[in-house]
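Much of what follows relies on a compact textual record of a protein's fold. Think of the row as the fold of the chain written in a discrete alphabet. An example makes this concrete, so a full record is given next.


***
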Amino acid sequence: GAARRRQRHTSGPEDHVTVVSVGHSSTHCMLTLAAVMAPSLRLGTPARAASNQGAARMSSSAAASTSAPYGSWPSAVTAKFITTSGVRIGGLGCDDSGSVYWLEGRPQEGGRQVVVKYAPGAEGASERGAVDATPKDANVRTRVHEYGGGAHLLTPKGVVYSDFKSQRLFLAPAGGGDAVCLTPESAWPDGQYRFADARLTPDGRHLVCVREDHSPTADAKPSAVLNEVVSVALDGSGAMTVLATGADFYAAPRLSPDGRTLAYITWEHPSMPWDATTLRVRPLGPLATAEGAGEDETAASTAGHARVAGADAEGCMSDGDISVQQPAFSPSGALYFISDESGFWNLYRAPPDGGYASAVNVLPRPTDFGGGSPGWQFGQQGFAFLQDGRVVATYVDRGSGQSRLVLLDDVAAPTPSEFGSEEGLPFFFGSLVESSDDGALYMLGGSPQRASGVYRWSGLLPGGGGAAEMIACSSSSEIDESLVSVPRPVEFPAPMGTSYGYYYPPRNDAFTSDEAAPPLLVKAHGGPTAATSTAFNPAIQFWTSRGFAVLDVDYGGSMGYGRDYRRRLRGNWGVCDIDDVCAGAQHLVAEGLADPKRLAIDGGSAGGYTTLGALAFKDIFTAGCSLYGVADLGCLAGDTHKFESLYLDGLVGKYPEDKQLYDERAPINAVDSLSCPVLLLQGDEDKIVPPNQAELMHAALLKKGLPCALKMYQGEQHGFRKAENIEDALNSELFFFSRVFGIEPTPDAAPFDIDNMPA
């Protein structure tokens, strides 16, 4: 009956379960922020790199290879190993004393996020040498734009953070003691305001941040949610001054060194931040405190603030669009930012003379700067300033997949220097922070073979050099290299031109196979305007160490390949992405690297839509798994949060004017052409892709008689965070594909009832 078909997991006294997506964030229509096993530095849960912290090594144990069918190889890379051995690390920063902090996401604590301070040897320090800097009952997350980011700030007084449950701001004092609420209940009810991306004013009395107003009842419809830039007094009064208002969205409010100028990014519906944004500046006057009123808020109108760069038309979405992101003032007062005006997100510099009106491209090259998937979360920054005024920026070399560091002087026409792994940097790195103590660079880094973590590199210091030192690793265990598949960059022909991805061959040195080719799992990342990565991803090694090949596709529309490639998806979601994942699978079949009868695909969120679309509209794959994926585009267009409420205007067309197009591209309307088994994994509190999407798809699959299953996880949102659900999602997908492909399931596969599947 329905109770069996619609399986609901429960765990613990709260009677709710958690499942984790094994696709990327990061997440979306779209980018999942909760994907614990996402291949992103800030979100990934890597397995442990070798370090001086005594990693536990996991090996394949067999000295001689045993012949066994692909997909049936037992592996020590289990789902439980992934969740019990690691945390997510992000939000790297240094305080004025030189102490290093970062944000940890802990699957074993239900995905709770904690700000920690690096203090090796301190009482209570973790195996990463860190102590908690926020209270044990605090979950440091903001829900601005739903994807959050920028949820904490280091200040001389302590850590200011957003509490997930109440969305209020708190201060965890630097010297210890109870956290202090900065936005008290006497000022407004829980949930009305959300805050993100804060910066401290030079006098230390205020924060300047993005505020999102969901009404006093905290249930405003997307069209009624109000986004603004505000100041918040740090005296505990909750006093606020609106500094920028009138636009649909705001991000990255940044203050000049003297505190007299505010820069920020803004954009209008239907654009997304990678489509068309504007960088504006305005002078600042007095800010509100408990003692008295602040400046006249009529000065806050964005329409009256000077435009520095970016889109010059409200809500434009045409080939003339410009995306500007990540503004920051250098110590000299110059305003830096990334802009795709050249066709790539290059780094620009605007001197303060003349009101920042004469910006120049200081790194003109066919390369995207700005880090991974700019625009999805607050707090992203692909460049940083050193104490001596120089600038450091990072980018990924697409030929090798390696990160590169560029060093340049703070001048209009600098001569850059470059550094990479040959100078001791990690294979993949980002989130650069200079120590205010000794001038060393800290960064998040890793490699395809090594778990990500926090690194210290002294290569820019006089007499410095050598390999970067990992001071904290995101995993407590190391996977033996005999179990690690190293990705190979691949290019393949597709209908709209060359497309890209990373191929992971099966790898477990304890086993071989006499079969001609392995089963293939194609992964479609979320977004859809996002990207995959070569950062270590144990969820991929979970498959390859069992004898599956994996293709991680950067389909047309992905970030990191320039504006033209990113714009392939304009009006073509459900066309270009589906064509590319199919073309990638066919390319590997033609190369003899995949079995055409055992082609699977999975993806989360937007990747789930691509998965369902590829199964419904093409005849390439023989099984699929959608994690909180979109099945009905029309329902999504009318039932999602503000940030993405008009995202589909650019990806598909205007709704309801183009309803016919939405209906044609909705997998739920093409079940008749679907002829292979499908597994659906969904959280029942998802506000981005509502649960009814999975329920509607499941009902249609049942009606057609196709093998299928729906697992609905209580208490989970967009992407799964709790350890038991991360494990269940991976093991369930393994069991499902094993049954469908006639492979003897490995012992850790989680058996469950598959509807319409013969015993």
Observations:
- The radius of gyration is 25 Å.
- The CA atoms of residues 110 and 205 lie 34 Å apart.
